[in-house]
Amino acid sequence: MRIAAEGVSWSVAGTTVVDGVCLEIAPGETAGLIGPNGSGKSSLLRCLAGVRAPSSGVVRYDGESIRGWPSLRIARHVAFVEQLADTDSELRVADVVGLGRTPFRDRWRGPGAADRAVVSAALARVGLADLAARSWKSLSGGERQRAHLARALAQQPYGLLLDEPTNHLDVKHQLALLELLAGTDQTVVIALHDLSLAARFCDRLLLMHQGRLAAAGPPKDVLSPEHLARVFGVDAEVGPDGLGNLTVAYRGVTRHADGGSSRPFPGSV
């Protein structure tokens, strides 16, 4: 599924958080959304996921505006995994993951054999098959994060939108999750803080700065020392590591950061 934003802005209490963003994610592409805290990544993701209506501009799925779409129709197209999606539910893990089947069931009918098979497969994909019968409350933060991903997978969407899904995960499960997402044929937009992981697993990076899309393109182009200095305020070296993966090494905080300037970037979108 193709996901596009055309001049999308979102404001709250008189403050513009997302400012005129235009982008397009190709079908099957894994796009990494990067930028410092407060740059508008989470708010943009919510607009793309139909969770939040833009103040102006249009979000399109396969060329069709989603403005006015009911939530169930959106949920049949995309699944959204929030940064901190918690619950104090007494449900079992399989029941929480089974919520991903809600858009496809009659409201008066419980889950059928096909639904249960989808849930089991989703749990297996995130390595939680043996915890299906466990109480949700008994899970660690990392296990809950993986269960929320399983819920999104059980939704069987065309697109997956994820806000910092590697939070609370150890290194093994960070790699497993990103390998899973990079290997899927679904369209993926994922907000990440770890720039080296973003460079390794994403086809393209979208760099947010003060609510605007400052740059978009292959990781090697977006993760330039100039962009890292001006957006993140760090002095960094970017190049291949011993395994051939593009990685970011930090020397420290730079004195040449723009201090919040909204001047356009060379080659910016």
Describe the model.
A hairpin with a 2-residue loop joins strand 9 (about 205-210) and strand 10. The relative contact order is 0.16. The chain has about 270 residues and is α/β, with parallel strands linked by helices. It has helices at about 40-50, 70-75, 95-100, 115-125, 140-155, 170-185, 195-200, 220, 225-230, and strands at about 5-10, 15-25, 30-35, 55-60, 65, 80, 160-165, 185-190, 205-210, 210-215, 235-240, 245-255. The two termini are about 20 Å apart. The strands form three sheets. Strands 6-7-8-3-9-10 form a six-stranded mixed sheet, sandwiched between helices. The radius of gyration is 19 Å and the shape is globular. It is about 30% helix and about 30% strand. Helix 4 crosses helix 5 (about 140-155).
What would the average pLDDT be, to the nearest integer? 91
Structural class of the secondary structure composition? alpha/beta
Strand count, sense and barrel status of the largest sheet are: 6 strands, mixed
Number of helices: 9
Strand order of the largest sheet: 6-7-8-3-9-10
What proportion strand? 25-35%
Globally, the shape reads: globular
